[in-house]
Amino acid sequence: KNYYAVVPAAGVGKRVGAAKPKQYIEINGQTVLEHTLNALLKAQLFSEIIVAVSAADSHWQQIALLQHPQIRVVEGGQERSDSVLAALTVLQAEPEDWVLVHDVARPCIAEKSIHKLIACLKNDEVGGILALPISDTVKQVGEAQAINSTLDRSQLWSAQTPQMFRYQLLQQGLQQGLAQGLVITDEASAIELLGFKPKVVEGLASNIKITRPEDLTLAAFYLSQITE
Ligand code: C5P
Fold first, then answer.
1. Ligand 1 pocket: which of 12, 20, 103 to mutate (most atoms <8 Å of CB)?
2. Is 174 in the pocket of ligand 1 (CB under 6 A)?
3. For the chain, which domains are there?
4. Residues 119-124: contacts with CB under 8 Å, at least 24 apart
5. Using one digit for the tens of pLDDT, what is the confidence trace for 131-163?
6. 11 alpha carbon to ligand 1 midpoint, in Å?
């Protein structure tokens, strides 16, 4: 089976509070997008890496790495899932081929985590995701910032990326989410819509999603530590 990577990079990243989308912010001399793409290229696994960018900005046009022969750029969509679907549409993949969707905002992904995900799932019918057991106690909060309930932490994991699924199932799941008018925030939830139970593979806490300004400092630290 072939392996493909899809990188949704069409978000505007408002929460980080910078003048440009977070994927174009520089950390240790490279943009977040370049760190993420270099991590995927380094794994030497993918027949092709499809990057969905926003037509609303031109930042991506300055990134020479996007002209790499293994990389193809497509125009993303309104929501993350629209961007992923746009990328899947241009892939000439077989139904059973694997697609690893990886957020552009997770530049600290370790090569060993990508290999672990694949080693754990390559014989699976459906696929699964990197995830981390939750260490905080999680509250369900209602009106007036009042706690309604406390969730059972022993059953909770934070979903990370890459999320690895069979090409055809992933496309079907995302299309179903679209048809039902749902906002799908990760690929696993699209697969769950089809009635499957994707697996979790334990990842690393360093695989943070850059969301808030302080995450940039943390990412700079982790990126300076990555040696393998
Ligand atoms: O906003 P959030 O951090 O959850 O976005 C997750 C990922 O989805 C980011 O990599 C972002 O660039 C991408 N995205 C996208 N198209 C959108 C919205 C988000 O590719 N319309």
1. 103
2. no
3. 3-225 (3.90.550.10)
4. 120/199, 120/201, 121/164, 121/199, 121/201, 122/1, 122/98, 124/199
5. 999 999 999 999 999 999 999 999 999 999 999
6. 4
Using CA atoms, how far apart are residues 128 and 163, in angstroms rounded to an integer?
Answer: 6
Q: Are 140 and 148 in contact (CB under 8 A)?
A: yes
187 ligand 1 Cβ < 6 A: no
ipTM computed for the complex: 0.94
Give the nearest ligand 1 atom to 106 CA: 10
pLDDT digits 0-9 by tens, 196-228: 999 999 999 999 999 998 999 999 999 999 755
pLDDT score at 56 = 87
